[in-house]
Amino acid sequence: MIDLLLEPFTYMYMVKAIGVSALVGCVCAFLSSYLMLKGWSLMGDALAHSIVPGVALAYLLALPYAVGAFFAGLLAAGSMALVRQKTKLREDTIIGLIFTTFFAVGLLLVSINPMAVNIQSIVLGNILAISDSDVMQVVIISVICLIALTLKWRDLMAVFFDEKHAQSIGLHVMPLKILFFTLLSAATVAALQTVGACLVIAMVVTPGATAYLLTDRFGRLIAIAMVIGTLTSAMGAYASYYLNANPGGLIVCLQTILFFGAFLFSPKYGLVPRKRAMRNTAMGV
Prior knowledge:
By secondary structure, this protein is mainly alpha-helical. It has helices at about 1-5, 10-40, 40-50, 50-60, 65-85, 90-110, 120-125, 130-160, 165-170, 175-195, 200-205, 205-210, 220-245, 245-265, 270-285. The protein has a single domain, classed as ABC transporter involved in vitamin B12 uptake, BtuC (Orthogonal Bundle). It is found in: Cell membrane; Membrane.
């Protein structure tokens, strides 16, 4: 039985897949805490769709597609911030407007210049077939993101809670927001290798949403989200060996199961404990 459970670790491609998935899951979960705090859950979805023109241009210029994806994501995030600052439009309207525009430009580029781009690998990801160079790229991106977030998490928390208060205590709000969106764009590109563009949104939303139901303290929320992101990503990649299933789909399903578990049984905000408390109150217990 033990030999059967350890069998995936005898294959190098599985060891790489489990390790890289856990690292990416940890970074995305860290970022998800801030997106939940600010109510920007659509931002990850927007960035995932906005990278398409960057990928198309990178292939046209014979560059690594991650480079094009990163700069397209960064440009999309910057465009959203600029439109938000200069207009009174609602944030969901701005996000929808920008990401559909970027996505349309990407499709237009691909249709005008047909290229040998494996769109399926970008949309669905394929962590089991990731090359050594891509592994190195994802690891470098993830480690840099983790270091930056660890050093600046309190400053980012102050900015995301209340920008005016952050300014009053001497924080530079705009550079910190640019830093956050740069890290988010980089993490989105890294996550593409694991779960693909379609499921990136889950990686940068679900762990934070689950942790939000379990604690009211932001530092603890980040820690819980990171544990959830790391474990579910590693377990999803591990289970794909036995189930012969897409690792990205398994990772997101595991994260969703944990979310519904917290939704139902969270001690303070869970549906079941709240109904039990209401029933006890009504009975005078």
